[in-house]
């Protein structure tokens, strides 16, 4: 490593940054532990920590409890705030590979929150569909969707690892024509953090969405939990 009157921690920072850029340290992989970096660069632990913290502050590295320090993936811009588009189509349009894992699909009686958003009564069954969605093998968002049984009684016959919910609703003559969304920023609980591969209490984008079909009838209510570290959202406002 070249010494050009720069502090040691800056030289280490620059070398790690170079390895991130050339792919030696790939996104979402761990960099060497502090003790290994001390041996590599022949410096003390405080010097290594200073270099790492600088890259953390710049959003290039992230510390993970009980795991170590990982290389951050570039943020994925989500346009669904102004476009009604399936997750698979949106991810593919960015040159990434989508994947969906169905965690749960079952019929149940709705909670009051679901009733209010779908404008149904507590004795009307809904389908609950829970999906973990990926981009290039990285978990991006955990989505829980509720669909009234009276609208789509055969929902359980579809494999939603291969079929999008919106295309299935289209084919069943209940296309989603407009949506209403509310955004919160919350802390990840233990289950969400495990599924999204983030630390407990890390920030997540928490979207509530009501999908409206013909005659403004609610056909879907979903709760989507997006990782805060690799997602950003574009919002278009026109006067």
From TrEMBL:
<keyword id="KW-0805">Transcription regulation</keyword>
<dbReference type="InterPro" id="IPR036390">
    <property type="entry name" value="WH_DNA-bd_sf"/>
</dbReference>
<dbReference type="InterPro" id="IPR028978">
    <property type="entry name" value="Chorismate_lyase_/UTRA_dom_sf"/>
</dbReference>
<dbReference type="InterPro" id="IPR050679">
    <property type="entry name" value="Bact_HTH_transcr_reg"/>
</dbReference>
<dbReference type="InterPro" id="IPR000524">
    <property type="entry name" value="Tscrpt_reg_HTH_GntR"/>
</dbReference>
<keyword id="KW-0804">Transcription</keyword>
<feature type="domain" description="HTH gntR-type">
    <location>
        <begin position="6"/>
        <end position="74"/>
    </location>
</feature>
<keyword id="KW-0238">DNA-binding</keyword>
<protein>
    <submittedName>
        <fullName>Transcriptional regulator</fullName>
    </submittedName>
</protein>
<dbReference type="Pfam" id="PF07702">
    <property type="entry name" value="UTRA"/>
</dbReference>
<dbReference type="GO" id="GO:0003700">
    <property type="term" value="F:DNA-binding transcription factor activity"/>
</dbReference>
<dbReference type="GO" id="GO:0003677">
    <property type="term" value="F:DNA binding"/>
</dbReference>
<dbReference type="Pfam" id="PF00392">
    <property type="entry name" value="GntR"/>
</dbReference>
<dbReference type="GO" id="GO:0045892">
    <property type="term" value="P:negative regulation of DNA-templated transcription"/>
</dbReference>
<dbReference type="InterPro" id="IPR036388">
    <property type="entry name" value="WH-like_DNA-bd_sf"/>
</dbReference>
<dbReference type="InterPro" id="IPR011663">
    <property type="entry name" value="UTRA"/>
</dbReference>
């Amino acid at each position: 490593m070249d010494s050009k009157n720069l502090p040691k921690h800056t030289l280490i920072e620059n070398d790690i940054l170079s390895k991130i850029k050339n792919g030696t340290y790939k996104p979402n992989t761990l960099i060497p532990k502090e003790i290994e970096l001390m041996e590599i660069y022949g410096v003390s632990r405080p010097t290594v920590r200073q270099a790492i913290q600088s890259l953390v502050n710049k959003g290039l590295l992230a510390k993970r409890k009980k795991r170590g320090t990982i290389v951050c993936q570039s943020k994925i811009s989500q346009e669904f705030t102004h476009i009604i588009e399936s997750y698979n189509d949106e991810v593919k349009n960015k040159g990434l590979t989508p994947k969906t894992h169905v965690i749960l699909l079952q019929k149940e009686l709705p909670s009051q929150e679901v009733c209010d958003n779908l404008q149904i009564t507590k004795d009307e069954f809904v389908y609950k569909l829970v999906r973990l969605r990926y981009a290039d093998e990285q978990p991006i968002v955990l989505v829980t969707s509720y669909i009234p049984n009276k609208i789509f009684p055969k929902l359980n016959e579809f494999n939603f690892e291969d079929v999008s919910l919106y295309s299935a609703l289209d084919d069943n003559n209940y296309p989603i024509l407009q949506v209403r969304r509310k955004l919160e920023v919350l802390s990840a609980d233990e289950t969400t953090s495990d599924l999204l591969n983030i630390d407990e209490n890390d920030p997540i984008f928490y979207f509530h969405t009501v999908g409206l079909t013909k005659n403004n009838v609610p056909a879907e209510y979903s709760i989507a939990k997006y990782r805060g570290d690799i997602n950003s959202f574009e919002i278009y406002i026109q006067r």
